[in-house]
Predict the 3D structure of the following.
Amino acid sequence: MNLHEYQAKEFLKAYGVPVPPGIVAATDSEAADAAATLGGSSWVVKAQVHAGGRGRAGGVKLVKSSTAAGEAAGAMLGTRLVTAQTGAQGKEVKRVYIEQACDVAREIYLAAMIDRSLGRVSFLASSEGGENIEETAQANPDNIHKLVVDPNVGLVPTEVQAMAEDLGLSGAPATATAKAIEAVYKAFTESDASLIEINPLAVTDTGEVLALDVKMVIDDNAVFRHPEFEKLWDEAEVSADEIEARRHELNYVHMDGNIGVMVSGAGLALGVLDLLKAKGGDAANFMDVRPVATRDQIAAGIRMLLADTKVKALLVVAMGGGVLRCDTIAEGIAIACKETTRHIPAIVRFAGTAKELGELALQNQAVGVTFAHDLADAAEKAVAAVGGRG
């Protein structure tokens, strides 16, 4: 779950991370009013989309009057911002964030993330932050500093202070940066975040430390523990299918192919997508069903795939386990197929618990599917069904 910059800043501010005053706006007049309300002599107008590289794409503008803030917002709102992270389609700008500008003396990069090789929260920091952080890190890898946190000990103040000093800071800015790191760690652990990235963490001409841009990602699997985040879920940037999948607790990602795919297990799903590609086909989606999925959730997923007019064939691969049985998946398939008037080729590969019962259930209910002998056979049959080489 991605938070917008303004949402992340509001959240981190409550933990003590220093951020400049700002107001979100959805119209040009709201943007002009926001600048007037904030006061000052200059403001930054920022497009609010889930993507980095906004500045290079024209999504960040410095203005010197409230009128100019409204004009800059009007030029952004309703357009599609294309960055290196959005793809050619870009993302529609539906909100902008108006923020007081400040005089920046230094830009620092700071991020908290999960080091999956260690299973621990780690901080990465660089004395050279800003828009070109990727290129800077590649050119000067020695400038990247890492701090791994032992969950049994927590942040060690001396290590935090040492990281701040490694960034070339001293005095009040070093102390403020250390406090920001501590605040980010507390926010990270209490929110079940998977990433909090501040780029840049700016040191102003007066020695003040401010988080000028923030990217924050919450682990989707933990959102149930945080009802306060439900209102922050930006459905405007999520496709209707993804919203529907989330309601039925299905992991779904839209893709560009014509073979609708449902698989029990994310790793297996990735393997199936690779197999389809190797056999000359392309998946229309990634859909992973949970080990505790119900037949109604399976049916909802199949209905989604059948409703996609680009999908010319279905491929269902299930490894029945201790909880999710193949016959449960078969019942879901049968429910969805009987409710729809659209019939397309369906290939099924069952293995594991209740494999035979699942196949028998589909046969007895006269659901027209083709059974595959193994994964390669399943991929070949699916590709052949859409006119590929198979």
The longest strand covers residues 104-115. The CA atoms of residues 124 and 146 lie 5 Å apart. The chain has a mean pLDDT of 90. The radius of gyration is 25 Å.
